[in-house]
Protein: LLM class flavin-dependent oxidoreductase
Organism: Teichococcus coralli
Amino acid sequence: MALAVLVGATGSHIASWLHPETQADASTSIEWHRETAALAERGLFDLFFIADTPAARTSNLAGFSRMPLYMNVLEPLTLLSALAGSTRHIGLGGTASTSFSEPYNIARQFASLDHISHGRAAWNVVTSANDFAARNFGLERLPPHGERYARAREFVRLVQALWDTWEDDAFVRDREAGLFFDPAKQHPVHHEGKHFRVHGALNIERTPQGQPVIIQAGASEAGRELAAETAEVVFSSESTLEGSRAFYRDLKERMAKYGRQPDDLKVLAGMPLLVADSAQEAEDLHRTLQHLIHPDVGRMYLGMDLETDLSDLPLDEPIPEERIPKDANHHKAFFDHIVHLARVEKLTLRQLYLRYERGRQTLRGTPMQVADRLEEWFSGGACDGFMLTFSLMPGGLASFVGKVVPELQRRGLMRSRYEGRTLRAHLGLRRPPNRHVAAQGAAAD
Amino acid sequence: MALAVLVGATGSHIASWLHPETQADASTSIEWHRETAALAERGLFDLFFIADTPAARTSNLAGFSRMPLYMNVLEPLTLLSALAGSTRHIGLGGTASTSFSEPYNIARQFASLDHISHGRAAWNVVTSANDFAARNFGLERLPPHGERYARAREFVRLVQALWDTWEDDAFVRDREAGLFFDPAKQHPVHHEGKHFRVHGALNIERTPQGQPVIIQAGASEAGRELAAETAEVVFSSESTLEGSRAFYRDLKERMAKYGRQPDDLKVLAGMPLLVADSAQEAEDLHRTLQHLIHPDVGRMYLGMDLETDLSDLPLDEPIPEERIPKDANHHKAFFDHIVHLARVEKLTLRQLYLRYERGRQTLRGTPMQVADRLEEWFSGGACDGFMLTFSLMPGGLASFVGKVVPELQRRGLMRSRYEGRTLRAHLGLRRPPNRHVAAQGAAAD
Ligand SMILES: Cc1cc2nc3c(=O)[nH]c(=O)nc-3n(C[C@H](O)[C@H](O)[C@H](O)COP(=O)(O)O)c2cc1C
Ligand SMILES: Cc1cc2nc3c(=O)[nH]c(=O)nc-3n(C[C@H](O)[C@H](O)[C@H](O)COP(=O)(O)O)c2cc1C
């Protein structure tokens, strides 16, 4: 069972930074990240993962100044490179958007990270979904979803071509012959596409992993197709076992038309966790966290999913009927859930935000309960492993490493030590042959 | 006297990788870079510097496969971040081109490096000068020189504005008040320029240095103006004391019209070195290196500066008169020097490339001779310090650290330990106040 951890500073709970157990300045502390990466490595995780949005909010600051996710963060590539030296085994994955960068720069930086980490780099390919990010890059708003994915596809395939610029043994460094590289083993890219034109060779040799691992988390039709064609790790975010199974089957089936085997791609199911020694302790901690939510944040948060502004409403009264919109434009399920709590349970605004949990519900439970759930999903064909998030960091991860990992090992679901030296080895992903080399069992192209 | 070292793997001599003392795979070895940075730090250098061109050659490979500079390198930002953890004091500077990146990404990555290194980041702003690099980024060729510098100016000023997005004390992280940052201390950038449009806030707080240090090495009129307006370190590359003095005076005089003090910018004179225990040893090592140059490289090298193709000519005969072009288009001084050696000294092609040294001649000498030259230039008003390159690395740097540094210390020209904790402190550069804060002695803008 593959395990990744999504590291978002103080934790995935929106009020986590207010909990005394967390370090409020974690998001920009390299020491905090080094310690957290070391912890994940002690837990024999496959992947340490940093998500990203290249932007900070500039509006609704009454709420966002109290719920600071992604407002103030280290940039993923520089952060992961810094962690390469303080870790030895764990994979180092980070997000970079195909909407706001140049393929040559992305190809170089992830290749460089793969060399620096001796084969542990992974790139999470995202198209980004925020207009406020687009405005940092010369655009009024994001291009439409389909266009973003068309660009992403061209981008990824171009980056992969750049990674194959040099055959694995191109740099002979033969002092007797005075030859640093064999010119016949350089294969410049000549790409003229709809979004990019690149004519050149990458200025870094092929990497320890052959190519850094490609991650994606697209859920839409276009997202799944891109994943089926190019991804090697996919983060899924279905909330039920059945939904996750269906996603898993769907994605693996799509791969055949791209000439890929199901095993060339690992699906890691997103799993938000809150682990405690007893079920009661878990509930107590959850309640503590919910009560740390500032009313402004609660209102903003609900308002986002109810798709209306609630900032002027009193906290201790129900939402007036006329303030509830007719229907949702974005997240129908979230919307309906809030409307139910407001209309049927007649909760006040305060009761509502204390009760409401956005999106996927956190699994709260004992180490045994958590292990049971992971085993159920893994053995039930819902995934090849998990992308874990923890309400509190690094506390949640520490509990998991200390209490759940041993249980998973006992059940034969997890390694007892790292056997390989690269992220591909950990995940059981083959090292891709260079497309310019006709190898046994691999066709040249 | 400020000291920087330009680290280009095996050394600045074109045949350095063939010398048995160097490590042929240095350019992609993170271990090699860690050791070299540690050495420079033992020598109390201010700055460890990585130059860059975002491209590998794809033509003339008969020569370039034997002279591999920049064909296969770690990318500067990922490399420097990785070095932040293995060093504690030395500044970490790297090149990024304003012709091929997005200001928001550059602002973030250098800000992140400044946080990760606790105040040691520096960005060398270049416009790039290679068409083969432009072809990696959708262009047929580079825009004209003036246009590149206009873009560079807009780029740098925009990055500096992004670095001032947040006041130094914006992130209060006040748990009692539930306030992560003070919204009044966020100052989004609203920029609509000729080359860039950016509306947003940087998603990382102001850095330990206030802003990373800006380096430039432009020599042209446009380059000097940009430096006078924005740079805090300038690498000069004059070959004579007099020329260097004139450059120094010229640059510092230009600063007044931008409201800057001469001391706000440090000029580091480029100084290529080959240090040995005796003058004879230095000459011997130089001769050894010259003889390691492969004839294909010698021919290509001469051909580049003579601005003609010499690849078909026999090595042991003079260059036929009719193959010498009428005049130079690029480097008149280099061209004239070669023509002189060919016509007047009547050297054969082989003798010529063994004799010829491109550009600035390497200072070869004993530790005492090197210290004398540095003192002469420094005390003579030619510079505020030096950007050193060594024919062989890390050997040359090791000799310098072991033998020249103590002599400079004895003369009172160098520190005996690091006193400050940031690159700005080492260089005696003030920490720039945030433009949005009216401070004593600093005007708001
Ligand atoms: C575990 C996980 C991590 C993600 N990380 C990022 C991220 O770092 N940056 C980002 O812009 N989107 C991120 N996403 C969003 C996805 O890339 C994707 O945009 C989203 O799931 C919607 O799917 P679609 O793009 O196919 O519409 C993440 C999603 C998941 C499930
Ligand atoms: C010490 C030194 C380091 C330099 N590093 C780079 C570099 O890393 N990348 C680059 O493209 N140019 C580099 N340059 C070139 C300068 O940025 C500049 O383009 C050149 O000196 C010509 O000046 P001009 O641009 O004003 O015409 C360097 C120059 C010097 C002297």
Q: What stands out?
A: The pocket of flavin mononucleotide (ligand 2) is lined by residues B 6, 51-53, 95, 124, 126-129, 217-220, 223, 235, 237, 270, 387 (CB under 6 Å).
